[in-house]
């Protein structure tokens, strides 16, 4: 039975979409070093991203937009991105293993595994693909929106990002439903 691993990247940031990836690896695993993307350096993630794409039986990356995050909430948007990633796999898995404690609605059996990105190779591979894809988008946003530091903090609520947000105001890529962004938007409305 083919197993797909699924994970997301970008639930905590104040800006940018949430990404998810689904990966089906061959049963003979030639890759080493796959684990939770947060435990890897950016350079190692980049190398593994290439290796995973080349050796996987199938892989897919999908996202849920900032508008969907604000409309549905971050959990539902994450599940939507995961659902999209699985739906666009070129090979249909018999089982989907999902990092976390919730599974998206799928046509096939699925199982949630807390800490799965560090336990299951397929989930770890998905974690890497999702993180690399999202980080690349945030680097492009850094070019389009100078002054926010998206390339360095990737949209997470660092002190530098919060200072830029207070100074420059939110971009269209900021999640208006997230507290720090919402507070700035509300303060600008009362001025």
TrEMBL record:
GO terms for cellular component: cytoplasm; ribonuclease H2 complex. Its EC number is 3.1.26.4. It catalyses: Endonucleolytic cleavage to 5'-phosphomonoester. Signal peptide: none annotated. InterPro entries: RNase_HII (IPR022898), RNase_HII/HIII (IPR001352), RNase_HII/HIII_dom (IPR024567), RNaseH-like_sf (IPR012337), RNaseH_sf (IPR036397). The keyword Transport does not apply. Keywords: Cytoplasm, Endonuclease, Hydrolase, Manganese, Metal-binding, Nuclease. It holds the Pfam family RNase_HII. Its cofactor is Mn(2+); Mg(2+). The keyword Metal-binding applies. Its main location: cytoplasm. Residues 1-190 form the RNase H type-2 domain. Manganese or magnesium. Binds 1 divalent metal ion per monomer in the absence of substrate. May bind a second metal ion after substrate binding. A divalent metal cation binds at residues 7-8, 99. GO terms for molecular function: manganese ion binding; RNA binding; RNA-DNA hybrid ribonuclease activity. SUPFAM superfamilies: Ribonuclease H-like (SSF53098). It is found in: Cytoplasm. It comes from the Bacteria. GO terms for biological process: DNA replication, removal of RNA primer; mismatch repair. Belongs to the RNase HII family. NCBIfam families: PRK00015.1-3, PRK00015.1-4. Endonuclease that specifically degrades the RNA of RNA-DNA hybrids. This is Ribonuclease HII. It comes from Thiorhodococcus mannitoliphagus.
